[in-house]
Every structure is written in structure tokens, then in C-alpha cells.
Amino acid sequence: MFFVAPQLLVGLLNYIRRRLEESSGRSLQWTESSIELCQCTTLSQLSEICRNYFSQCFCANAIHCFEFNWKNPQRFTDRSNRNEVHSDVLGSWVNKPLWKKVTVSEDDELSICIGGQQDVTFITVNGLGPFCNSALLFVVCQAGCEPNSSALTVFLQHASACYTRILQQSPDASQNNQTAVMLSDDLINATDANDMQIMLNTHLRDQTSSEDCCILLVSQEMNQIMCQVVGKHILDFEMCYPVNNGLFGKICEKGQWIIPSEKEMSDLEALFSTPVQSALCIPVRDKMSGKTIGIVCLCNKTGSQGYTATDVVAVDAVMSRSWTVLSSSLTLQKEKKARSECEAMLLIARKLFSRLDDVSMLLGEIIQEARCLTNAERCSVFLVDNEAQELVAKVFDGIVTMDESLDPKQYDFENMNEVRIPLEQGIAGQVAVTGKTLNISDAYAHPLFYRGIDNATGFRTRNILCFPIKDHNGVVVGVSQLCNKIKGSCFTSYDEELAEKFAVFSGISISHSLLYKEVEESHCRSRLANELMTYHMKVDKEDVKKSIPRSSLTMANFHPDFDKFVYPPRLLENNLKIKACIWMYEDLGLISKFHIPMRTLVHFMLMVRKGYRDPPYHNFDHAFSVMHHAYLIAKNLQLNSKLSDLEVIALLTASICHDLDHRGTNNAFQVNSHSVLASLYSSEGSVLERHHFAQAMCILNTSGCNIFENMSRKEYVRTLDLVKHIILATDVASHLQILPQLEKIVEEGMDLTNTCQRELLLALCMTACDLSDQTKQWETTKNTAKLIYKEFFSQGDMEKRMGNNPEIIHDRERACVPQLQINFMLHIAQPVYRILAALFPVYGEVYQRVQLNIGRWRRVEKEFKSRGLPNTDSLDFLTDEFDRDLFEDLE
């Protein structure tokens, strides 16, 4: 027998206590059983110590021990024979809320049964930390006494710590650590971060007997959780999830591993692209900050047993040793991506700044680059029109999404020139006003999105990224709207970051392009003004005074048939044409209606006459003929009872101004020759027609020439809009576009209360006036054709000198004038007069003369071929004698 000094015994016990605390990671109270628990190394020893202790505490002889998992409390392993048993009784007791919770730390709690049934008491010893779902269940039968609850609690704390230490030191855990070391060595030889993730996924899948595995990376900067690799497959696009909600957001927030419920399986099934029966999600936490930096997801555990704490330990062992290597590779990958992004931005900047001379080309380049940069299906760019308080889109890549206030049926998307929407409406409008990016994952759920365009076109807009384009002063100059992320469910925060960087280059380039265009237009206008000043002379005041009628004019001053369709206005003497113009305004009551001063009207007409050059056909004589036919239509068709006085004066004024400063060449020639006019107007189309209107405005703005000066502001604005509309209608291309609508009006009947139909009628009347030489007697029609083709062939000669190949209608060497004239009258002129005659039967006589002239041209063509006459650029063979012989039966 020997004695141990008390000081030595206390020191020994403290040493044992420290070992126990180090192994469990917990601060423990001390009991007499601590020495036995500290020396315990196997579950068999632990269960035996616990049985002995419970036997003494409860004065019981029969105590059984089972091992189970809280996640599957219907399957128990008998520790006495290692057999697995199914016990509904045990399971029901485990599931009953009869457990007293005893807190061990912030993360762990112990469960103690406070009651029993039929002399049976249940006690559990739980694992701690990652083993919190593992437990030993002790069943005490026929207890003879009540235990000391505080002593029992302390014992259970020690037993749980011992149980956790045994699980950590199990062969499986040691093997996991050894395998993790070997894996970390292999990861160093991986080529990139994706290759590393494939290796980790494969290893974790095998270690945990799972069907598949993936690692999600948490980016606190981008506020997103991303996954690029699932199993052995590198995804075509990153799967992105929010960091503040959903299954993965919950894991980030709590920092604890979970086995997802059935309701939470949808995200995993979308991620793994397979049905998920069981899953385990384990956070990877930064050792310094404690924040979640990654999530390991396992799915479909093979075998009958579900995921356990052993799987958590295996994953923790692998990730603790491999995360540093993976993190370094991800950082390198991020740096490479940033460098590639910088190179792409520099290339984009080079492309954009090479397009400054053409805004449309620049916008097209911006659309293409923005779409490619973000993998978007479609893109549109709107420019801010601050004066009109509108957003303007002139270049389209697909269909833009507009607002409910705009009817998609009014737009012909295939031939669209531009779309204007109010500045404050819709998604693009909100971005333009606020200057902030909008990333909409579900377009149809957004209150500002309008589905009408999708319904009209069949296109489906899923998601939208709309970002502002600002200049160097931070002022919004445009808005870019991207639709439908191609590789991904929606646009990500990374796309937002790219778009905002891209917007910097776009904003500066657009600002410089608009400035360049403004300077270029100013230069062109200056050149044009100098050219006009050189060519034109101001109207002398004496000329104005002499041209003012001294007495009231009557039709007798001109011709008895002046107000009839048969009268040829080209026969009127030149010195009477200005007076005739004034009389037409007066006869229609426009002078008194709009209080036009006579001196102003005379000055205006003299300036208009000065505004015409002297090409063979498009001169003031042609303008006077067109105005005369407009007067005849207004008077004989009684348009003043069908149209407003504003519309009548707009038609009459537009007809006399419609070819101001015509150069004897067509629109195509202006564009191909890169003329000053093309520089000003080619981006809008109808180059010459826009120039004619601009010249009309110049004359109206000249002092003493504004015949609309006594109108109200509303009347003035409306009249100018109508004049512009009517002059632009003289472009044959515009006429051919509206022809189907006019045919429809003939079929269904005209509704003169419809503003759109009234404007179509004005356009039709203007075209009829412009071609009115074809409605006169044969002599007038024939002589006019000579003038027209003389002008056409002159243009063809210029094109040849420029090295171009003119169209046949302009080529004197290839043109057959009778045949060309027949084609023109059949396909252009005849439909105009047929429609107008159908709407106004009194106009039938005009249509009949057109038909008669077509018949004459056919006879000319037939005689032309029968005589074997060669192609000629002249109609000199159409002499009076030739006409008498050819049309003798028609006289």
C-alpha cells in the first residue's frame, strides 16, 4: 500500500482534464468519472463505463445501449452484438419532445430524457460539433432510485466529449486526413482552378459514396454564390445564386452544414441536372474571419444509410487542406480574367473611336459589342433627345421592348427608321431618368415591362439588363437595353460590372460622335449657305412692289379654262405665273381666312421662284404646274368640305415649294456622290425632299415672307408639320410604302374623322399633283417627257464621268423612252389616279386621260419597233406629222 501526495493527485487530475478538454474542444467540469472517460479509447469501453455509471445512478440492473443518427431515428445498432434493429418504440421515444436541453456551448446542446413510460428511462450521449447527429441511446429498465440531476448532467458532458474524441480518432477519420494530404499534393499539379475543382469533386464524391458533387464559391464583393464546375463537367456558363436568400444563402448566413428538406431540393436539382433524393451541404469557412467562402454540395448517397457526421468530417478534412491551393488558383484565374477583360475593353475602345464620323455605324458597333460582351440575345440603344424629352432608337438589333402607351401595330419593324418613346416611360425611361442600372431577372414580372411587342412579334423576353450611357460629365446621353442572357438564367452582377465599364467608352464615343456630327453639319450648312448665296439673289423691294396686283384679279386674267383639269398650266405666260399663284390662294379663300398680307404673299412667291434652279424639268414651271393641279383638286373635289382650311393651305404651299433648289439629280445620285445634301440628310432618308422642306423653311423665316405669321401657335406648328409631311410624300419610295394602305381605304371606305387617313389623302393628292403632266393633252405629255429624259440622261452622263454605271432610265445609250414611259405610267402614275377617281368620282375624267395617254404611248412603242428605229435618247421623231399619222383615228 502506498500514498500519493494530495498536490500530485491534483496535478495529475488537472493534466487528465486538460487532455480531455483538448480532445473535445470544450471546457468541462470535473467529476470522479473523468479519469475513466479520459482513458477510454473505444465505443465499447465508453458504453461499458456509461452502463456502470447509470446502473449506480438509477439503481438498475438492466441497461441496454444503442447507437443511432438523429437524421434517421428509426434505425438503431445494438452495441452488445453490433446488429442493426428497427424499433418503432425506440424511434417514437426519440422523436417525442420529452427532452431537456442542456447547453454545452453556443453550437451544441445535450438532450436528457426527463421521463419514461412503464418503468423505462431513455438517456442519450450526443456527439459534438460536426458529430452532433451521432448519438448513443441508453435504455434503463426498472430504475430503483432517482439520480442526482446535476451530477448526471456533468457526466453526460464528459461522456459527449469522450464520444466526440473517439469518433474523431476513428480509422475513417485518420484515413480521411491521410487521403486529404495526398490530394493536396495532386492539386498542385493541376492546370487551372477548373481542373482543381474537378479533382476535388471526384475525390469528395468517392469519399462520401455520393453520385455527384460540386463546390460553390461565395463572392462577398459581387454579393453572389457561383458555380462553374459540377462533377467532372465545366459548365458553359456560371450558375449564380443570391448570397442573402435561398438554400445557399441560408448556409452562408448560418455557417452550418445542413441536410436540405424536400422543399429545398429544387435548387440542387437545377444545379446537378438530375433528381436529388438525398443531399448534404457543407460550408467552407475562412479561418481568420469566420465567414463562409465556399459551399460543398453532395447529392444522392449510395446505399441505404443517409449522410452522417462522418461525411462532414471527411469533407472538412479535404477542404481544410486543399482550400488554400484552390483559393490561390482562383485568384490567379481572376487576375487572368481581369487582364483579358482589359484587353477586350481596349479593343472595344479602338473599334468605337474609329466610328466617330457616323453615329448610326457607331450605335451598331455598340450594339454588337454589348451583346457579345454579356452574351445577350438582343440589344437596343436609345439616345436621349433632351429637347423633345424623348428616347430615340435608330439602330435595331432585334425588337426593342417599348411601353404600353405605344401600339406595336403602328410600327413596321422591317422598314423602321426610328422609334421614339417618352423620356420617363418604361424600363429604358427609368434608367435614363435615374441614371442607374436595372437588372431584371423576370421581365414579365416587372411593372414597367410591356408585353405588347412580344405578343405582336412572337419574341419572348425573359430577362433584361438596362444600363445608362453617360458622357464625361456624368450626364446620361443614352440607354442600352440587353435582352435574354444566352448562357445563363439571367444577367449577373458581373454582367452589370462589365456593362458599366463598357458604358464609359460608349458614352465618350457617342458624345464625341454627336459633336463631330454637329461640327460637320455646321460646316456643310455653311458651304450650302455660301453656295445658295452665290446662286440666288435677294428679291428687290421694287420687284415686290411691282408684283402686287393693283386691282382684284379674276380668272379672266389668265384663261377661261384655268379652273378646269384639262387646262395645261405650262402654257401660261411667265409674267402671269406669280399673279396666278396669288389668285389661287385668294380664290380658295385662304388669304382672308388666315389674314395673309398681300405684300407678304407676293414676297414669298418671288422668293420661291428665286429658290428654283433651271434644270430641264425640275424648275419653277414644274412647281407652278403642281400647284395649279393642287388648286384644281381643292376647288373641283371640294376638299374644303372634307379637309380643314389648314390642310388645304398646307397642300397648296407644299406644292409650290416641293422641289425648291432641285439640282436635276435624284436621291441615289446625292448619296453615291457624297454630296453636301447627303452629308446632311442621308441618315434620315429622302435626301432631296428634306432639303426642299428646309429651303421652304428658310424662305418662311426670311423677313417679310412668313405667310403663316398671323396663325395661332397651334395652327402654325400644325401647318408646318403638314407641309413637311406633304413634301416628303413626293419621294416615290414613300409613296410605294403607303400604296397598300390607300388601296385598303378604297375597299373599306374613307373615314375623314381619322387623322391618319386624312394625312394619307393629302399625300395621295400631292403625288397626283406632282405627276399631273401625265393627265393633260398628248402634246403636253409628250413635251414634258422630253424634258424629263433630258434631265435623266444628263445625270447618267455625270455618273459615267464619275466611273459609275447608271441605271437604264438614266443611260441614253440603253434607254428606250416609249417603253420606260409606259412602265412609269402603268406602275407609278396609273394607280394614283385610279385610287383618287375611286374616292372622288368627279376625278374620273382625269383618270380617263391618263388611260388615253398610256394607249398613245403603246402605239408609239409599237410604231417605234415596227419601223426598226434604234434606241434613242431623244423624242424628236415625235413630230406633229408623226402624231397625225399615228393618232388619226383618235382625233
Automatic annotation (TrEMBL):
SUPFAM superfamilies: GAF domain-like, HD-domain/PDEase-like. InterPro entries: GAF, GAF-like_dom_sf, HD/PDEase_dom, PDEase, PDEase_catalytic_dom, PDEase_catalytic_dom_sf, PDEase_CS. Keywords: cGMP, Hydrolase, Metal-binding. Gene3D superfamilies: 3'5'-cyclic nucleotide phosphodiesterase, catalytic domain, 3.30.450.40. Its cofactor is a divalent metal cation. Zn(2+) 2 binds at D659. PROSITE patterns: PDEASE_I_1, PDEASE_I_2. Residues 546-864 form the PDEase domain. Belongs to the cyclic nucleotide phosphodiesterase family. This is Phosphodiesterase. The gene is Pde10a.
